[in-house]
Amino acid sequence: MKALLRALAALALLLPAAGPRAEIVLTDDLGRRVALREPARRIVTLAPSITEAAFAVGAGARVVGASAWSDHPPEAAKLPVVSTAVAIDMEAVARLGPDLVIAWKDSFRTADIGRLEAVGASVFVLQSRTLADIPRLLAVTAALAGTDARPATRAFETGLAAVRAGQAGKPRVRVFLEISHRPLMTVGGAHFMGEALDACGAANVFGDLAEAAPLVSWEELFARNPGAIIGTGPAGGEAEFRRAWADRGGLEAVRRGRLAFVSSPALGRPSPRVVEGIEALCRAVDRLR
């Protein structure tokens, strides 16, 4: 009973506050207590995945500014751009007058918290690296905006379960997932794209690495000798991807022509839309079996 009560109390923090003056209090992923007197009305999102989450939970009309590459849904692409992966345009943020800024921990400098608070915004910092983080991303975003995350969460979880069920029992393929060719970059075990490979019945040849997006050497890749190579887009496209691997015939995957390219932009973001990207990835894995 005590465990049930604790679970219900935690869930209550993620639901919209009752009444227009009820305070919303949540702890962010820097361990900071963030309190809003009422649901946020003017929101700035500092990562494309957070922008997508805001629209997914029905808070898109409250987003007044977003990071670069926030291009989904189409309405998001029309928002003023206030940040890149390396910097925030504080003057642009100040002009928009947000009462809440939601930031992604991996691309956010804690030194910017005070600067954002100085323009009148509360700051909530979120971590989102794994597929399990996505329902929480939706729940927290909805709680801060006073909307309902449940429909979007159900759609995400149902879609992901359907993908896994459709791949169950199929032969596993040892895959190298290319994020970048120069320098050579892939994903480790603690990354949602590594989990996406697993959902598709593929074994990530660098899944034992703890780093989320490691740079690897050609010597390491040849030593692990994957049975297939999958490239992700959109940079360069499929033609460039295949040209780049043409002279690596010492690898089993290249020698046997087991290369595939996934151009879905949904695959590259830990957002609810990633299910679309995983479906595209699974189709590529199926072609390589």
Notes on the protein architecture:
With 289 residues, the chain is α/β, with parallel strands linked by helices. It folds into 2 domains: 13-148, Nitrogenase molybdenum iron protein domain (Rossmann fold), CATH 3.40.50.1980; 166-288, 3-Layer(aba) Sandwich (Rossmann fold), CATH 3.40.50. It contains 11 helices and 11 strands. The strands form 3 sheets. Strands 5-4-3-6-7 form a 5-stranded parallel β-sheet, sandwiched between helices. Strands 9-8-10-11 form a 4-stranded parallel β-sheet, sandwiched between helices. Strands 1-2 form a two-stranded antiparallel ribbon. β3 (43-45), α2 (48-56) and β4 form a beta-alpha-beta unit. The longest helix is centred in the middle third of the chain and has 18 residues, at 150-167. Mean pLDDT is 92; it is low at 1-20.
Map the helices and strands.
Layout: H1 2-13, E1 24-27, E2 33-36, E3 43-45, H2 48-56, E4 63-67, E5 81-83, H3 90-96, E6 100-104, H4 112-118, E7 122-126, H5 133-145, H6 150-167, E8 173-178, H7 192-199, E9 202-204, H8 218-224, E10 228-232, H9 237-245, H10 252-255, E11 259-262, H11 274-288
Parallel strand pairs: 3-4, 3-6, 4-5, 6-7, 8-9, 8-10, 10-11
Antiparallel strand pairs: 1-2
